[in-house]
Amino acid sequence: MTKHILIAVMCCLLFAFCKKDEVSAPPVVSSVSLLDPAKQDSTFKETLPGTLILISGNNLGGIVNIYFNGQTAYFNPTYNTNTHLIVTIPSTAPTEATDPNVPNTIRIVTTHGETSYSFVLTIPPPAIESISNENALPGDSLIIWGSSLWLIDKIIFPGGREVTSFNTDARGYRVGLIMPDLGTDTGRLIIQAKYGTAKSDGPLNDHQSGDVISNLTNGEAGEQSVFNWAWWGANRTNDAGLFPGTRGAYLQNIFGGVGANNGAWWDGNRSGNFTEVKTIFDASIMTKQASDYALKFEINTKEPWTAGINVLRLGDSYAYRFMPWASATGGVFDTDDKWQTVTVRLSDFKKADSGKEGTGANAATMADLLKADGVVAFTYRYITEDKAVDVHNTAYDNFRIVKIK
User: Which domains does the chain have, with CATH numbers?
Assistant: First the structure.
């Protein structure tokens, strides 16, 4: 609705307010609608908390209180006439998601009586923001974070595997469950709920597909080899006891005693270097938007990460300054010795500015990041700036580029 329409509606109501007469009959609600005249539909019987609405009826003057499913709502008496009330539904009003016995009513109390009107407060469709480990092993705990994760009927994994046993939190932010055995199936996770569906932004069990730059495995048991490591810069190992919970081999970066402002990433186990690889992308990928794709990988911290920057690099010009500790609570990033999926949008990779990698202009298209015909040149390099690193012990696996939109 435009600002001019809203002003016109309010002016009409104010005019009516100035001319209203004394009322003694009980209030009656005839309809609830949006303010936009073009959207004033008589079948409008439900909406989301937080919506600005127009209540129409008779004998509505002198409202003392208005309740949405028992939650009182603030209203400006100026916008209350004998025939109308403009009010915003409280964003905290109860819904079926938070109270299965919610009455689904609007209750209006006036100086001369009260009334109730049947009206349903719905919730937004579910949304998935992240999954704890997109390459979790069968039997591992899996956590899905997002919003409106309420009234879920089932969660569908690759291969059509349906899970109906899970735990949700009261705020709709989190779902916990056990990872089923997906075999070799790869695909996106889908949440089916009463008020809609949600799909993960990348495939699960994606550790040996054409999306993968390298899974670091070179003939070891656990997965098909996708091997593009350049044989230097980190420890490659398949020691399942050191960092348990992954398949095949992975990279370990372990170092310490690195002072501030040390850019010598080639020293002391402080990088990951890969040969160039042709992925499933063809020449058409070059014109696609970088924001439609992401670099994903799994990470596992043996020691809390509190300083140092891992400069993720694509091509010769673009980089992303990966330092999750900077936004973590207390400045400490720690996966608690578990594998965790990291997602970096490719549009967040930036050119160098004044010689400092990853601080300039963002990548716009895939041509900024890839070589001809979609060839990927990827590396990562640990440096320090204003903080020293006493000890760092982190593992990486399953570097991949996936379409997220």
Answer: 3-121 (2.60.40.10), 127-199 (2.60.40.10), 212-403 (2.60.120.260)
